[in-house]
Each structure stands twice: as structure tokens, then as C-alpha cells.
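This entry is listed below:
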Amino acid sequence: MYLRTKKAPFDSMEEECGVFGVYSQENRNVAHTVYYGLYALQHRGQESGGIAVAFADKITYYKGMGLVSDVFANGHLDSLPEGDIAIGHVRYSTTGASQLLNAQPVVFTGKCGKMAVAHNGNLTNTKQLRDELIAQNAVFQTTIDSEVIAILINSLSDGDLLNGVKSACLKLKGSYALVIMTCDKLIAVRDPYGIRPLCIGMADSDVVVASETCALDAVGANFLRDVKPGEIVVVDSEGIHSHMMEGVPAQSRMCIFEYVYFARHDSVLDGLSVYEARKEAGKLLARHFPVEADIVSGVPDSGNVAARGYSEESGIPFVEALARNRYVGRTFIQPDQRQRENSLNVKMNALRGNVRGKRVVLIDDSIVRGTTMRKIIKMLRDAGAKEVHIRICSPVIKHPCHLGIDIQTYSQLIGAYKNEDQICESLGADSVRYLTIDQLLSTCEGAKTGFCLGCFNGEYPYPLAGYKADKLKHESGVDVERGYEAVKLMKKYVKSTYTEGVLGDLGSFGGFFKMPKIKNPVLVAGTDGVGTKLKYAIIADKHDTIGIDAVAMCVNDIICQGAKPLFFLDYFATGALSPEKVATVVSGVAKGCRQSGAALIGGETAEMPGFYPEGDYDIAGFAVGVVDKKKIINGSNIKKGDILIGIKSSGIHSNGYSLVRKLWGEDISKLRIYDEELGACPIDVLLTPTKIYVNSILSLINVVKVKGIAHITGGGFIENIPRIFPEGIGCEIDINSYEVPAVFKVMQKRANISDEQIYNTFNMGIGMVVCVDPKDVDVTIKQLENLNETHSRIRLRRRDGFSIYNRRERARTVLRHSLSYCF
């Protein structure tokens, strides 16, 4: 029952790729130039490659699956004809099947004759554009957004390719670095924010365009300049011509992940050396997050430069800890998670002699899913590493990227639902520290560009409302994949609560429970939430006990009627689902269910983007119990002279937190400071879970005739105890008959409120009150003591109403005949 959503169809294919183009003044083997350029860009995509060559009025191309060297082996490169213009592409698809149909360049015949397009990036409005073009009778052969770009340019060209490109760019939303080829010109285009890199070089009289400068170096071209954000560069027989798009923003927003990971370290992007940026990142890590260690090493290859910077700054020697198989591709850009994990085993190996007995600082560019790093840490420990400290050259990745990197859902991001300490525990490291956003930006100060930081802070250049590139993401923004992940993670907790009455398993639209064999069964139901106590769970990032509160507030109500809890259902609502957080909350729900003997047979997760602030959530519960009709406890036979016995609470429980928050605030750093009056840190007291009384009450009613039971929740003593009295019965309670816990004394003092006010809000240390006949008092007390329940006694008087008083302020006492049990 935890999920009632359906899969959404694929809307587009997202890519992080490499593009290359050459315009030559002579007819020659330009395909060979493109080949070497693509070889240098192989790190940007390893699934497919393709080259298209133009000469006269023809475009010839060849595309294949695999690495460039494999695609163009066996004479395929030499089969391409000589020409004067050529473009190439290496592709990495981030979603969907990798297949030849989607390999680039896209080659077709249009209004301007033969054309070829290669694209690096990802559009966020692909579906909208595709639907519009289909309505105009366009026919698509692939599922990639690059074909959408090609057909859009063609539809708007009216025979003039430049006008078609300009008009198309006004409609495109997202990231794109394009190389476009006709039979007489080469065009390079960079999106208005310059999210993906693109540069121009010269090799003798040839003009070369490429995703990175390392590709220019590979073909002997001299760097000329970067293509500007929003620029359309046309190369033809008359030279190089620059045209700017309309409405180019003043602030460019290049993807900072290019410096962190994607670009090769010997490239220069927008005026900044990737090598220098990464080395500075390592130095900053050493400066801000030092650790005692014996060696510093990098995760090859992108972590090595930063590791050398860390070594220089810290003085800890740089030693290789991992040997890399150069013939295996990068794990992050394998198309399938299973392929990523399996490839690691053959991709790298620990150098045992270098790490055995050593404290290792391991530097890496980023942690996305955490699966690779977890395996690397285990690999190092298995090789004898004494300690493994992880230092990351970027901030925690908390948000998906919709602009060309393979992190399309929150469920793929370990940083979306864990803080640094939790990530450290999950990975099995001795410590984990990340650069902050400001520190990362300082490593890129020399760049002639601004940066997109969306994967770190959720702020993207383009508004993403309505974006539906995620194959499992609803138009509403609900991410079903995260829901599936949450169900998977919580399953073990749910099953731990199952009793013999449970029928079926998670996933049905309803939960099934077999009625126990009772002669006259009566079902008793209760529902409740946790209230604003949740705020403290959220700000403390502690979610493992709040589920106990949700269960307690429901089962403590139904036990008041003598009903044994049968099953429980929960409801969890949030803005953006974090599977780990949901599972942690449900682990608490399951613990509460086990304590009360209730089976957790289902629930609902509701993802409501825009309704809840980031990180906030709400939880509520619903419990059903059963009692024999003749054994229902309703207080109807309570009479004058009966005894009330209070059972100790575990603290504030889950009521009155609006006042609690006013008194203690929400500054977590202050809440973690020891409070002398409380005798504890406030956050520990405020998050103590609500006590569950089910087992104690069930044991008690088996040996004593309990006449009435009151659960002390919101409304405190004054509202809840009278609810069990028949008409004409009231009571007076001496508030000095037991020791009130410190937290309530502190709150009353700081809030400066009366006894009546505070006893009308909080449980004041009494979580449950039972009413018994005077002759049953001794047996009741003995039973409670056997159950380790602390208690206090109160005698009833005939009175219309209910009151409390302080014995120290009155001469007489109602409790003169009773023993006093202090907490």
C-alpha cells in the first residue's frame, strides 16, 4: 500500500557527450582529424561514436556502438571518403537503452540540403517541441533530443540555415553545445547560458571546434577562443562569422561539474585550467579539513590532481593507493548501475604494499550514489589500510541534474537524504568531508564565466516547472522511483512487525488482517499525528524515533477501552521523497508496532512538491484493536471512593510543542548544549519518544478489574481524566503527590504560567491513569511494580467537576489515606 503511482513514459534521452568538427580549405582525409579529436574526448562518452564527412553535395557517415577505436576499426575509418568538412560525436546516454539508432551525428536531408547535427547537453522542453513538430507532420526515427533540434532547425530554416538556427535557439530550453554541418559550412552553437563547453582552434588554415581544448591539442590545433554563451559561429569559404542569439543573459552559467569531474584535467575551459582548479581544490581540502594520516592518494584519474594539491598543502606524502586498469571505462558514465558496480572490480585494485597498516586520505571529485566509493573503501580495508579518510573536491550533491549529467532522480543521490556523518557511516569510512559551495567557487575564480550549481543548491539557469525527462517522474513532479526505493528500504522493518493475523504483503491497495477468535469481537479504532514535535526531528536530522510517537499516540488511545491493537497503518507526506529518510521514519513506526504488538500492514507515502518546504514532512497513523464486547472499559461503573493510579510518562510525549518551540527555539546548535536545569541536552529531552503502555495495561487488566483508563495527551490532566467519569463524579488531585519531572518545572518557570495552565497542556509526568476499586489497589500496584512501571495514587471524591491543588498551599489533603510513590 505504500505506493499508488504509475510509471510515466520516457520523454527524452539525456546526454553528456563530446562533439568535434573541422572545416578544411582543402579536400583531404578530414575524418582522420575528427577521429583523433574524438579519441581525445573519449572520456565524455563511451557508448557510441560517429563521424560524418561532407564533400560536394554528399554527406557520408559511419556510426557504431563502443569506443572510438572499436567503432572505426576494421577499415571503417578508411571507408569514409575524403572531404573538406566533418563532424563527430561520442555519446553517453543517461537513461534508456543504449542502441545504434540513437548514436550521433544525426544525418538527414532537409530544406538546406544534406545536414548533420551533433549535440552535447540536454533539453528540458523536448516533449513540448516534439509534440509541436509531430503536429506539423514531422516523423522521428530516434528518441534523442538531438533529432528534435535537427528537425526544428530544418522546419524554421526556409532555405536559410542561419535563420533556422537562430529561430530554433529561441525555442530551445536547456543545455546544448552543437556542431552542425551542411555541404558548404560548419556551424558551432553554444546555449545562452554556456552550460556546456565549446571552443575554436586553428590548425594551419583549418578551423576546428571541440568540446574541450584537449581535443584541439590532439589534432595539433592552436586554441583560438571559446564559443561565447549564446553565440552562433559560422565557418565557410569566406572565413569565421559570429552571430549572437537574441536575449542572451548577462550572466553565463557553465556547469561547474565540468571542472569537478567531466573535463579532462589538461583542458582549459572558459579561460581556466581544469588542472589548476582541481589542484586548488585539494589544497583547500587540506587547509579546511586536515587529518592525521600517513599517505594521500587520489581515486584515479580525476582525484589524482587534487590529491597532489592536498599533499603539497599538508606535507603528507602522495602515494598511489589504487592501481587503475586503463582499458576500462569510467564507472560514473556506464549506462547501467549493475555495469557500473561490476566494472569496478576490473577497473581498479588496491596496492597492498602501499596501504597496509597506513592511515589513508583518499581524494575524489564527488560522491553521487555512493556505491563505487563504498566498494573502494572496502577494497582498501581488505588490503590492510588502518584508516580511510575521504575528502571530496565538491559540495554534497543534493539535487538531480536535468541539464546533461546522469543524476536524474533524488533516489540516485546519497547526499539527498544523508548528511556528512550519515554518509560516512554508510560508506564505512573513518571520516568524510566535502568542500563547501563557496570553497568550490574559489577554485574557479579565474574562469570567464558564472556557474550552474543546481546539483548542489537546487538553483538552475532554466525554470524546471513541467520538465518531465525522468522516466518515472509525473507531470506533477512526483518521483515514483524514489517511492519504489523507499518501499524497498522499509520492507524489512515492516515485515518485522507481522503477526499471525497478517495476510498478504506490501504492494496491495489494501491491507489484510484475519480477525482473531473472540466470542463477541468489537473493533476499536484510533488515529493521530505527532504534531510540531516533528520540527525537532527535522532540525536535528534524527528520524528514527518519531515513528514511535505516531504509533504511541494511536495505540495508547485504543488501549483505554481495553482493546488489544491488531494492526497499524501510517501516512507519510513530504515535498520531495527521500527514500532513506522515509525508511528511517518507518523503522521507528515498526519499533512502536513491535512494542504494542500491532502489525504494520501498510500505509501511504504522499509526495507533494511545492506544498511542504524542503526537508519537511508530516506523519500520522491509524490503529485498529479488538476487545470482547463484555470486557469493554468505558468508565461507566466508576464510583465515589475509587482510586486513580497514575503511570509515569517518558517525558513531554507529543503534545504542547507549540509552547515548547517558543521556549527552546529551533537553533540546533543551542539545543545540543547541556542544560543544567534539565540535566540533559534539550534536544535529547524534546525528542524522547512517547511511552507505549499497551503491554502494561493488557497485563494489568488480566489480573485486576480496571474500571477506567485515561490517556493523558493534549489538554493534560484537566481535560483527559474527567473523560472517563460518569455524571456526578469528579476529583481533586494534589499535584504534590508525586515528583514532577524537571522538564515541566523548567517550562513552567520559563513560560511563567500557572499550575492550571500547564496541567491543561502537558501530561506533567503522568502518561496514563487507571481507575480501580480500593480493594484492588494493592494488587494493581504490585502488578505495575512487576512491570517496572512507576506510579502514584489519587482518591476520588464526589464532585461536579475536576480540580487540582497544591498541598503546600492548603491545610488539608485528599491523599491522607494513601501512600505516596515518587518518580
Summary: The CA atoms of residues 347 and 489 lie 29 Å apart. The chain has a mean pLDDT of 86. Residues 579-596 form the longest helix (18 residues). The two ends are 42 Å apart (CA to CA).
